[in-house]
């Protein structure tokens, strides 16, 4: 049976397991957000558990646990608190590990039962934390951590746009040029069409003729910024310094900017909200498009936290601390021949680790905070059991949007400013 399994490296298996733990925790948090969970708990009639509904407590314990604490946004806060603290402990513990012969590397790559038990214990204990200042404090921590994670996502997304364009241009030059040129043009046009539709819908549904000046500013400024970036990307001087720069990257950047703009406007507090009544979201029911965008965001967070793609850009590899053979989805299989015996996990880090253990756990720590904010739509559960949106969440997304556009613009103009540096 072992001979049927593919060759696997220790560094790969470990990252997949940690990602699976993060995904499992996210699924549990999603279940807590599902409508009617408290009613289902009451219907099951577990002895002593939520027998009187969501407002009941669990008798027989030294600390009474409000059943309402187990559902909704507060449950998500506590589940993600447990996950993030778990990853943060490992991030500190794994600092400066050079190879797998370090005793701490054994903890990173093994002892899964004890580590999972510790995760369950931390998460369970989080439900006993009194409300008090915890909820708002953790909301602020979540905003800061999610903002940092978004910045890393933006760097990876800019690099992804450049890599996508470079790949298709190479295929266009070496293969069927007409086919790949048509594909390149079609994707670019589609991205811009979707972006234009988004701008129109934003003005229709998120502004009013006699008000909503901030939303009008967000939409107009971001639209003009995207137009400027798109024009800069096709300037003759830029094309000379970066032959692979093109309009495809700008279309991807523009479309993602529109998403960030929409996401920011949906987080505006109720008293300042400019939405039409037909699209206003309740505190417990989220529209389908919002759920889909959250799913996309969570997938992006898992992708970013794993750093599974080795970038063609050296500076991005330095950020993600990826090695030459650290791509999980595309390993070259250059490991020693194991065909003569059972195919076990190969330790490929005896001489040097393939990625920074500490940075990897730090990414998962930030990913946990980002997932927490994404699942709760950046809303803050207050002490009076109300769910409110906060202006910091709006400005975090808008500022990250501007940083995103500025970062991409810098990748275009930097070779023109620093002509003596290699930006290839």
Structure description:
- With 424 residues, the chain is an all-alpha fold.
- It contains 14 helices and four strands.
Count of strand segments: 4
Give the low-pLDDT segments. 57-65, 278-292, 323-340
Shape: globular
Overall residue-averaged pLDDT value:
74
Strand order of the largest sheet: 1-2
Estimate what percentage of residues fall within beta strands: under 5%
Main beta sheet strand tally, sense and closure: 2 strands, parallel
Radius of gyration: 24 Å
Helix content: 55-70%
Features:
424 residues, two-stranded antiparallel ribbon, 14 helices, globular, transmembrane helix, transmembrane, TDE1/TMS
Summarize the topology.
Blueprint: E1 8-9, H1 10-33, H2 37-44, H3 72-93, H4 103-109, H5 112-126, H6 134-174, H7 177-205, H8 213-233, H9 236-241, H10 247-265, H11 288-306, H12 314-320, E2 345-346, H13 357-375, E3 379-381, E4 387-389, H14 391-417
Parallel strand pairs: 1-2
Antiparallel strand pairs: 3-4
Helix pairs in contact: 1-3, 1-13, 3-5, 3-13, 6-7, 6-10, 6-13, 6-14, 7-10, 8-10, 8-14, 10-14, 11-13
In short:
The protein is built from 14 helices and four strands. With 424 residues, it is mostly helical.
